[in-house]
Amino acid sequence: MHIEHAKMTDTINILAMERKALRHQHAKKDYLIARLRVRIASLEQLIPIPNHAPRDKSTVTCYECGVVGHYSNECPKKLAKTAPNAAAPGKSRF
Ligand SMILES: [Zn+2]
């Protein structure tokens, strides 16, 4: 019975140690992830986000009038048509 008890205590001690080690690893992992997130955020500031990057307008064709060099939302013909409403801000932003 004494041996069994000693074994059980050993097992409990080992489990406690493993749990402690795991918790330490988790803390380390969280720390590394947090550091990586900061690094990623700083790197993202260096890389232009494609959607926000200015596109070469010389290659775009307006599907409003078919003229190369501007987007349909900048189309002079369309703007002339919608001129009375264009003054209202936020309308084109949808
Ligand atoms: Zn146009």
UniProtKB/TrEMBL annotation:
Domain CCHC-type: 62-77
GO molecular function terms listed in the Swiss-Prot or TrEMBL record: nucleic acid binding; zinc ion binding
Superkingdom of the source species: Eukaryota
Ranges annotated as spanning the membrane: none
Keyword Ribonucleoprotein appears in the UniProt entry: no
Keywords of the record: Metal-binding, Zinc, Zinc-finger
Protein name listed in UniProt: CCHC-type domain-containing protein
Source organism per UniProt: Lolium multiflorum
